[in-house]
């Protein structure tokens, strides 16, 4: 079926040029064949008009236009002929391959080649004259030539479209990688900021509340000392982190990451901060092998202990807080337990981000972590955080 969509302006130009050119040739008496005794010369204008109209739908209905154009070209052979009719037909052949369906684009060049060969052999057998080859050459020029040209242009166009799609997909993948990298970096920054600063701020919040609620000069003095120490340490950590963010870390010497050797100092600081809350902090290292571990593993273990101590300072009931470090085969075990239950006195609010950060750190290393209340030997409920971290370098995920 012919499409009644508005024709492309280029198609209108081709149709108008072909029609005007054909009329000009007819007026000048330039004909392709001799006079036909039974056909008036003006009849050659009918095939010309048909192919001119078909040129308007060469994009929207290319195969239908080709079929009707072929009939018009055959009809033109019974008239005095018009060169414009033949030229417009070659354009219809070209458009059928270029704008038609993929199957038509594959079939038409093969079909026109076979027709060209058949016409050449047929006229040679009929006329038995080498000049009959000219008929085959003309047939190839009118049919096979435009078809193979259309196929070549279509292949180049499809290749260009495929290249454009690949470029778009590459750009999309690059943007997705960039977004994932940004999200991962933001999550890492959030974990680092929380782990580095939350401990100091929790101690400040608890001791400032104690200083305000307990009217004892000695208690207030001790609380203010703890507040000052934690505020100075927290401010130093914040300045270091902000400096790294501003420079991207390129203009600064890389800072040493916390290691397992620093756990004694961390537990000692927690012991000082938690003394006023009735918490006693202790550290046990039961590892047989105490050699250095991969840096990501040591950093994750340190941060897990740091966050667990911070949570104990915020929420634990008065009692012991025990940090245990052990190793079973290729797994490093980190365990922090504290008394579970209500406690008197001030406490700092929690957001839950610490537990999320610990789970993210462990997941990046391919380990396992559990956190929650468990029963002890004497029936006293305790809150326990236990993480198992693979110590192999290959276990660390990018």
Description:
It is a single chain. By secondary structure, the chain is an alpha+beta fold. The protein folds into 2 domains: 9-171, no CATH class; 259-398, Histidine kinase-like ATPase, C-terminal domain (Heat Shock Protein 90). It contains 10 helices and 5 strands, in the order ααααααααβαββαββ. It has helices spanning 9-27, 45-54, 62-76, 83-99, 102-127, 133-213, 217-247, 263-274, 295-315, 353-365; strands spanning 279-285, 319-328, 331-339, 368-375, 381-390. A 5-stranded mixed sheet has the order 1-2-3-5-4. Strand 1, helix 9 (295-315) and strand 2 (319-328) form a beta-alpha-beta unit. Helix 2 runs parallel beside helix 4 (83-99) and helix 3 packs antiparallel against helix 4 (83-99). Residues 250-254 have low confidence and may be disordered.
